[in-house]
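The instructor's notes for this session suggest beginning with a concrete chain rather than abstract definitions. Hand out the sequence below and ask the class to guess, before any prediction is shown, which regions might be ordered.
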Amino acid sequence: MVERPRCEQIRALARKFVAKYGIATPGTPIADILARERLEVEFRHWGRSPVGGLLYREERVVAINADDDPKRQRFSMAHEFGHYVLGHNYFEGRGVIDIDHPPDDIHPEHDSDSEVEANNFANEILVPRPILIGLRPKPSRPNVPEGDQSQAFNTPFAALSKRAPNRRCPPNNSRSVSSSPLPLSM
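After discussion, reveal the predicted structure:
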């Protein structure tokens, strides 16, 4: 499990991109951010594959499953951008991976440190905490229904839910094997 301090650093890193691009309202323009960071997004038809996206680091390409729901595509873009920013390289030692026919087992386990980290980054950049807090119900304002929040952020509801496994930091008492420093400069 990823340790809490590292999760907080990852979220802080994502917030740096939120600030860098002046994101102040729901609907982070993730495709624009990738373009401005000189990453090319390529849509590929992978059908009902468990693979939503792949990062080809050396080529600076993020491949996205064109057959996925647009909200899932947005999350996959943000997730792969997280891998890029965090320096993950899940192709290492796997040889050449065909962009048009990725194997279903290309990604590490969903609960691996790198996947949890990329999910945390994606959640924070797509649903920045300060913006989400601004949408929380206030005593003088009625609740914003969960579906409306998902629609506002153009993100799958799982990205908004504290119950989403593998997308949140562990409780404060958790331990981790991961303690490598993060690239906190952009």
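Then share the key points. Residues 162-167, 171-180 have pLDDT under 50 and may be disordered. Helices lie at 4-20, 30-36, 70-86, 113-126, 129-135, 146-153.
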